Inverse folding.
């Protein structure tokens, strides 16, 4: 596929705006976002009033709810991008629970690759400190590291980040997802970067329209509420501040004078509306990422890269097994040496055989040492 054809496919990203009409995916994503936000609020309260560890549990639960909810919505949008009706919400959630770990594994393996690359770069730069040869080596290492690190950053931004999820949502295993992402990064990095920029512009345009409508509606509704209900402090700045001056612990109470309860209720409703405003551009982004993945995976030789990755992983496993076997053998040899040393220390030393020229007692013939006055055997006084 030529670059011109790939760029023409970029214009199809405009159809990602249709994702806002998938009300089931929108409701699922919105519910996940609201639930996660509620759990985060509870985490803050529990951390201060009960124990920080329990607050951390609520925070992790919030992250899990949003993660699997976003994956389930992405699975439903992938169905649409593939030309099939999106599956029911429950089926999407169950699928997300069964394959969501693949996305985590992909990101962990990619992070490991980045760490190994940084270590290799550091090693090369250390070699550049060799006296005499270091400057010449640095002249070669520096441009290579610049190009490789820049390519890795752009690949992570334009390929791994946006397309790792769609690769998993399409049914790929962890190894397949890695190989396909590597193939796209190797063969179509330029087009993918441009496509992601176009997608972000589309999402930003959709988000600005929604935020503009919300702010306009907030001004109109807040003004009418102040005139009809008599709610004071329903201006845009007060509602955006979540009615902090009327909340408990911030100078007021929800059951105090006036109609402060209405301000708190309006602030909560405004928060829900802002969650909706965040959900719709996110839906467009997820749908656009699905389309980007499907359009760029066509004609890409991912099987060859997958085979290479499998061979490298197998070689790494064999190397780790050999190192483990050598370590066990060395440990066994060391244990045998220790056992032999301990056994030899327990064997008594052989008694010294008497010397034929050594002096003996004239009575009992017991060997005597030079300087002895009496015999050690019979007590006879020795003659000098």
């Amino acid at each position: 596929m030529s670059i011109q054809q790939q760029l023409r496919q970029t214009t199809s990203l405009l159809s990602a705006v249709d994702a806002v009409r998938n009300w089931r995916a929108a409701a699922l994503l919105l519910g996940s976002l609201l639930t996660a936000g509620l759990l985060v609020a509870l985490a803050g309260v529990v951390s201060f009033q009960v124990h920080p560890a329990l607050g951390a549990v609520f925070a992790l639960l919030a992250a899990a709810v949003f993660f699997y909810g976003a994956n389930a919505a992405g699975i439903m949008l992938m169905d649409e991008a593939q030309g099939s009706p999106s599956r029911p919400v429950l089926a999407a959630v169950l699928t997300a629970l069964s394959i969501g770990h693949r996305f985590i594994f992909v990101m962990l393996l990619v992070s490991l690759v980045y760490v190994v690359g940084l270590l290799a770069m550091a090693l090369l730069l250390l070699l550049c400190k060799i006296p005499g040869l270091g400057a010449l080596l640095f002249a070669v290492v520096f441009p290579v590291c610049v190009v490789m690190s820049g390519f890795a950053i752009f690949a992570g931004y334009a390929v791994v980040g946006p397309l790792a999820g769609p690769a998993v949502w399409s049914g790929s295993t962890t190894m397949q997802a890695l190989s396909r992402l590597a193939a796209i990064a190797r063969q179509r990095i330029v087009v993918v970067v441009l496509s992601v920029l176009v997608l972000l512009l589309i999402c930003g345009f959709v988000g600005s329209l929604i935020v503009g409508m919300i702010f306009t509606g907030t001004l109109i509704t807040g003004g009418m509420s102040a005139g009809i209900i008599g709610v004071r402090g329903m201006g845009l700045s007060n509602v955006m501040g979540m009615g902090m001056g009327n909340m408990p612990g911030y100078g007021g109470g929800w059951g105090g004078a006036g109609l402060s309860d209405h301000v708190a209720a309006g602030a909560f409703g405004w928060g829900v509306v802002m969650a909706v405003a965040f959900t719709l551009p996110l839906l467009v982004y997820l749908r656009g990422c699905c389309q980007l993945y499907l359009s760029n995976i066509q004609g890409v030789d991912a099987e060859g890269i997958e085979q290479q990755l499998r061979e490298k992983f197998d070689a790494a496993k064999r190397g780790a097994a050999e190192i483990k076997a050598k370590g066990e053998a060395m440990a066994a040899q060391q244990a045998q040496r220790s056992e032999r040393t301990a056994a030899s220390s327990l064997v008594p030393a052989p008694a010294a055989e008497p010397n034929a020229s050594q002096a003996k007692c004239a009575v009992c013939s017991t060997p005597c040492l030079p300087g002895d006055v009496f015999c050690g055997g019979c007590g006879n006084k020795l003659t000098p």
User: Anything to note?
Assistant: The first helix runs from residue 3 to 10. The two ends are 115 Å apart (CA to CA). The chain has one domain: 14-300.
